Amino acid sequence: MKILIAGAGEVGSHLVKMLSNEYHDITIIDDDEKRLDELTALSDVLTIEGDVTSFDSLKRGEVQRCDLFMAVGPEENTNILSATLAKQLGAKKAIARIDNDEYLRPNNKEVFINMGIDYLFYPEKVAAQEVITLLGHSSTSEYVDFSGGKLSLVVFRLDASSPLIGHTLIEITRDRENLEYRTVAISRGGRTIIPRGEDFFEEGDTVYVISGRSSVGEVMEFSGRPNIEVKNLMILGGSRIGRRIARELQDEINIKLVDYNPEKAYKLAEMLDKTLVIAEDGRKSEVMIEEGLDKMDAFVALTGRAETNILAAMLAKRMGVKKVIAEIENMNYISLAESIGIDTIINKKLITASSIFRFTMNTDVQAIKCLNGCDAEVLEFIVKPGSPATKGKIKHVNFPREAIVGGIVRGDKALIATGNVEIRAYDRVVVFALPSAIGKVGAFFG
């Protein structure tokens, strides 16, 4: 696929690194020579120095031959104009990053479709919704619904009290028939394991489970930590994500939002009438303690600096806060943050990748979730008639070892996949896959 990316910032750079492993023909446009030089040093990608809204730059990128155009810069208006021009100049599909929820309303989306933009994505909105979901499932580190919630991916870290520790997969499932969940991966010491029956669970493992709706509660108990009801929440940082979380939850729970900028805090107080907005420097531990951090059920750090978020989250853990979430955009810090006990990491680059990676695949992919702290993705496919996956039982179709089928949705019924299950045309199939297997997996369902 020929892909043209407008914007070599954090999101654009991450997309280049991710997609360059998929044998695509990638060109990226940006007006910052230094950014482009850094990208070419790391990836096999063609770069063009220029304005992403310039006819000349777009034509130099051969936009007329482009299968997919992605405008992912920090400026919403620039992205919209760039994507519109690209589609008018011949790009087959054009998508744009935005930061305005108004544009996603059904009636307004039609306007952008008429302009030629096929898809709009708003990473901050998705990030806020992820945080809200996780606050409702506090014993998990990630929680993703597929097929309208008929299947869910539940991710949790094993505490010392977990009943799984020291047992194998076979031992856990031996006396149970018709299980409604399946362990699809274990992350241990920076390594991702596609588990087999003889693999043991160890303390500190991050476990990835596909579950049916009725078994989510049972699965979450395996973590060894209780699911708490969040009544008191503190948010550090009045970012777009922080504002949206407060606006969505302020009618249901008590929220304190801390921001160091007095002018910004004043504006936030006007917007969030049921949220207590505090104009203080959250980097100072004495301030956070004075504002009652130790009395919070949950703490979310959403400043623009990963270092500040990590340190604040560490303080919250030391003060006994049960659920701690931090936004960490520097990919190099994610493993560090997880190793020091931060429950959940929010990363807009991975959220963006999850939103648009499916457009780069030839198979009918309904959803992709790029996971934190794990070099793998979870994908939801719709099975095409006559595809290799329909030629027999799962254990007989030579499915890649670097991937595992977690569950199947057939009509209104959800099935947990075992070796004896047969996949049928038009099934929705949820698959956990390492990067090396994604292309092979797609071929099974296409």
Automatic annotation (TrEMBL):
Q: Which InterPro entries match?
A: K_uptake_TrkA, NAD(P)-bd_dom_sf, RCK_C, RCK_C_sf, RCK_N, Trk_Ktr_HKT_K-transport
Taking every annotated instance into account, which residue ranges of this chain make up the domain RCK N-terminal? Answer: 1-121, 230-346
Signal sequence extent? none
Q: Which Pfam families match?
A: TrkA_C (PF02080), TrkA_N (PF02254)
Official protein name in the record: Trk system potassium uptake protein TrkA
Q: A single Gene Ontology molecular function, please?
A: potassium ion transmembrane transporter activity
Looking at the record, the residues that make up the RCK C-terminal domain are: 141-225, 366-446
SUPFAM superfamilies, alphabetized: NAD(P)-binding Rossmann-fold domains, TrkA C-terminal domain-like
Keyword line: Ion transport, NAD, Potassium, Potassium transport, Transport
Its domain of life reads Bacteria
Gene3D superfamilies xref list: NAD(P)-binding Rossmann-like Domain (3.40.50.720), Regulator of K+ conductance, C-terminal domain (3.30.70.1450)
Give the taxonomic lineage as stored in the record: Bacteria, Pseudomonadati, Bacteroidota, Bacteroidia, Bacteroidales
> Can you quote a single GO CC term?
plasma membrane
Query: Could you tell me which species this protein originates from?
Result: Rikenella microfusus
What NCBIfam families does this protein's entry cite?
PRK09496.1-2, PRK09496.1-4, PRK09496.2-6, PRK09496.3-2
